[in-house]
Fold ATP phosphoribosyltransferase.
Amino acid sequence: MVPPAPLDSSSSVPQTPIGSSAQSAVSEQATKSRFGAESAMSLLVESLKDRLLLAVPKKGRLMEKTLELLAGADIKYNRAHRLDVALVQNHPIALVFLPAADIPRFVALGSVALGITGQDVIAESTHADQITELLPLGFGKCSLQVQVPVSGPLQTIEQLSGGRIATSFEVLAGELFKQVDDQVGKGKTQVEYVGGSVEAACALGMADGIVDLVESGDTMRAAGLHAIHTLLTSEAVLITSRTPHASLTPELAPIIPLIKSRFAGVLAAKKFVYASYNIKRESLAAALKITPGRRAPTVSPLEEEGWVAVSAMVERKAMANAMDELEKTGAEDILIFALDNCRVGV
């Protein structure tokens, strides 16, 4: 048998280290990888020093709607895969992606200057008194409600006193049933934390009732439950700390009203349309009751004697009815324009 020819030292085939040599090579490679990651993180941390930090939800419907809002406000950024910090390209801002429930704490402590999260998680946190709500954002609307089986024997919160409640809102549920227990005097209600699928707790015999968020109510009804008490209504809000962190420099502070104004403009553009029409002056008073505008309509005389042109912002949901009513008053040339963006007083 002919023995295999030895590899030439100039061959492109790599030599595989053996024993301790292999471990050294792997260790060296790992060290380089860690060094690279640490260097990248150090650069990222360094780049945050002169930026305003805005915390946004990192998953779910709140994140989707928040990203739409950021796009409408022309806040441009690139987010690297699996990285929860993104630098904004056209403003000295950095986005920090966090669980919605953690955002109140980060904002209250001044770790970030602004945050977007739900009023429900703010109320559930222990930092509500340290937070200022700057702007309601009109999405993520829901209600936190006490729910019980439709056909069950317990149909009031007083009847639930002393029983078992399953919820992911331990603080709010605990506060409610402490008050009820004190009034009824039947004993302490057991409030148990359940992280998900809370609506199944009653059917599984884990609870007499639940405290959970209701958006459309479909999940509640599918589980054979109905609401008997509402603790609060909630929507997403833009928040800041009542005690701004020292990192909020005079150069960065003006960005807060800028973001608020841009967000308000995007929301107003979604809520309103711009209506324009011509009408006889004698019918103007009746028409203005239909289109009063956000502040006041614009009325301009036409070249034709006795006629005026009117323009006003009208709520999108009332647009069709407004056009019908304007037509009845004698308005002509009724035009509706969609708004891409706007600036409104907030």
